[in-house]
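name: query_chain
kind: protein
chains: 1
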Amino acid sequence: MKKVVLFILAFNGFMFNACSQNTLETEEVEEVEVVKDSKIIFELNFNATTEGKYTKQNLIKEAGEIRWSLLGDRANIIKDPLGEKGNILKVDYPKGTVGPETNGIQFIKSLPVSNEYYLDYYVYFEEGFDFRQGGKLPGLTSGGSKYTGGNHPDNGEGWSARYMWVKKGEAIVYFYYVDMKSKYGDAVKSGINFETKKWYRLTQRIKLNENNLSNGIMQVWIDGKEVINNTDVRYRLWGKGDIDTFYFSTFHGGATEDWSPQNDSFALFDNIKVTTQKPEF
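structure:
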C-alpha cells in the first residue's frame, strides 16, 4: 500500500497557531484504567436527546464523566436534514469569530489506556460552510489537549492526532508527535476535499510504536476508503504516551482574523465510537 507522507503546514506563511486549549484543561490526577476486552470503548449518539440546546448536563448524561467541556451556546440537537440519522449534534461557528472560546465546541473524554484504538464518526458541513484558512475536527490523543497549541512532546511523552479542514476544505490529520517538524503541527494529507451538504464517515486507526522504534501505524478511511496508511510512525519514546483521550475539538483557527468564517457556518456530528476493532464499512 502506498504510504502517505507528512507535509509541514505552512499555507501562505500562516502557521496553525492553535489557540492553545491548555488554559482550559484541568490538572487532575486520574486513576489509570486498563482497557477491557470489549469492542466498543466509548459511544456517543444523540437520538435520546431532545431537540434544542445541548448542555454540559446532556453531555454528561450521555457520555459519562468528562474532564472538561467548552460548549457555550454553540451546541444544539436537531433532526438530520437528510433524514438518515435521527437526532444529531449541530455546532455553530459564528461569523467573524476564531478560536475555541467563541467558535465551535470542545470536550475531553478520558479513555482506558491502550496502544491501539479506532475512532469512527460522521461529520456534515451545511450549505455555505466557510472553510476559510482552516479549523479543527475531533481525534484521538495522548495527554488530553496538552500536546496542541505549539506544545511539543520533545521527550516522546504524548501526541495528538486531530483532524483539520484547511483551505478549500482539504482534509488532513493535524499531528503533534515526538518527531514533528513544524512548530504548530505536521499535516498528514488525505487527498480528499470536504464538500458541503453530504455526510462523511471518518475512521482513524492509531497503533502506537514499540519502545522508540518507528513502527507505529496511522490509518484513515473516509467513507470506507483508505486514504492514509503510514506504518513507520514514531508517536512516542520508551512506552510513554499511551492513547488515553478522545478529544472532541472543533473550531476555526489558528488565532487571527483571517481564519474566521465570513458568514455563520454550521457542522453536524453523529455516531461517535472508539473501538478496539476495525469498524465494518
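note: The mean pLDDT is 90.
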